[in-house]
């Protein structure tokens, strides 16, 4: 089935610059939640996430929840997109496919100490 919904999971976020849920100084933050396949009642549960980073030092994970009205603790890790050694900057594009009837999807960033996350998009 072709993608029926495409959305931005995380807008461009540069270390040291306040954007969205990132305050410009924290090493960890979560994106806003966005509707996943399960929200729309799709039965295939197929999601594709594209991530581009420039000079990133940190960890980026995709998280999902099956709850209709989730609390912060209701999200589970689906996939680790990027994880580094804490000192080597990463510049690359990444694609992740995962299957699950997740109602909500979000991005969790940790150990963020440098670089830029150049948008993270999801299609499902």
Write the layout of secondary structure elements.
Layout (H helix, E strand, L loop, with lengths): L5 E5 L2 E2 L14 E2 L3 E2 L1 H4 L5 E20 L10 E7 L7 E10 L4 E20 L1
Antiparallel strand pairs: 1-8, 2-8, 3-8, 4-8, 5-6, 5-7, 5-8
Structural write-up:
It is a single chain. The longest helix is centred in the first third of the chain and has 4 residues, at 37-40. The mean pLDDT is 93. Strands 1, 2, 3, 4, 5, 6, 7 and 8 form an 8-stranded antiparallel beta sheet that branches. By secondary structure, this protein is mainly beta. The protein has 1 helix and 8 strands, in the order E-E-E-E-H-E-E-E-E. It has one domain: Jelly Rolls. It has one helix spanning 37-40, and strands spanning 6-10, 13-14, 29-30, 34-35, 46-65, 76-82, 90-99, 104-123. Helices cover 3% and strands 55% of the residues.
How many β-strand stretches?
Answer: 8
Task: Tell me which CATH architecture applies here.
Answer: Sandwich
- Secondary structure category: mainly beta
Q: What is the residue-mean pLDDT, rounded to a whole number?
A: 93
How much of the residues is beta strand, in percent?
over 45%
Report the uncertain regions.
none
- How much helical structure, as a percent, in the residues? under 10%
Query: Oligomer, anyone?
Result: single chain
- Radius of gyration over all CA atoms, rounded: 14 Å
- Per DSSP, the total helix count is 1
What pattern of helices and strands is seen along the backbone? Answer: EEEEHEEEE
Sheet bearing the most strands, described? Answer: 8 strands, antiparallel
The geometry reads as globular
CATH topology name: Jelly Rolls
- Kindly provide the name of the CATH class: Mainly Beta
Instruction: Give the N-to-C terminal Cα separation.
Output: 9 Å
The figure for the number of domains is 1
């Amino acid at each position: 089935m072709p993608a029926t919904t495409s959305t931005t999971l995380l807008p461009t976020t540069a270390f040291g610059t306040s954007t969205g849920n990132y305050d410009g100084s924290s090493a960890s933050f979560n994106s806003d939640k966005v509707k996943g396949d399960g929200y729309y009642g799709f039965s295939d549960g197929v999601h594709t996430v594209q991530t581009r980073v420039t000079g990133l030092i940190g960890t980026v994970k995709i998280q999902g929840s099956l709850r209709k009205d989730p609390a912060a603790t209701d999200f589970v890790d689906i996939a680790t997109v990027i994880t580094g050694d804490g000192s080597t900057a990463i510049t690359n594009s990444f694609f992740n496919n995962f299957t699950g009837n997740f109602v909500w999807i979000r991005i969790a960033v940790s150990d963020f100490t440098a670089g830029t996350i150049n948008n993270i998009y999801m299609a499902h």
